[in-house]
TrEMBL record:
Co-factor requirement: Mg(2+)
Enzyme Commission number: 5.6.2.2
UniProt KW Oxidoreductase keyword: no
Disordered: annotated segments: 46-75
Main enzyme class: isomerase
Name the record gives this protein: DNA topoisomerase (ATP-hydrolyzing)
Pfam families linked: DNA_topoisoIV
Source organism, top-level taxon: Eukaryota
GO cellular component: nucleus
Catalytic activity: ATP-dependent breakage, passage and rejoining of double-stranded DNA
Keywords: ATP-binding, Coiled coil, DNA-binding, Isomerase, Nucleotide-binding, Topoisomerase
InterPro entries linked to this entry: DNA_Topoisomerase_II, Topo_IIA-like_dom_sf, Topo_IIA_A_a_sf, Topo_IIA_dom_A
Amino acid sequence: MELLKLENRVRFILAVVKGEIIVSNRKRADLFVELQTKGFTPFPKKTKAVEPGVAGATDDTEETEVKSPADSSSNGVQISDYEYLLAMAIESLTIEKVQELCAERDEVNKEVDDLRKETPKSFWRTDLDALEGQLDELERSDVSQRS
């Protein structure tokens, strides 16, 4: 998900810089529709887990965002789902920020590729090695405290 967000941010900034997306002096609803039609991925804000007995109930303490009919579309996507793009500071709409995000994206992409190459057995061994190291350290500290 982080990789997809980074890719979308890079695309968004480049589109704004190139003038393909105009952000200033526009209604949020119009911008929302344009982001949808241009294929930007919506990321809904995380909400608290809902207990089965109260499904459908809302928790006003989580976030008090007033939603107008224009705030959502028929497929359940809301304007706030694009907040990760729309809330970026104006200073981030620069080529330097694009280069920074591209470097971050490449790093995350490498991590994802490395994880895909791993096997469950190698994950298990890595975790066991880390646990063994921590147990050895704990044992040494216990021995030194007794002395």
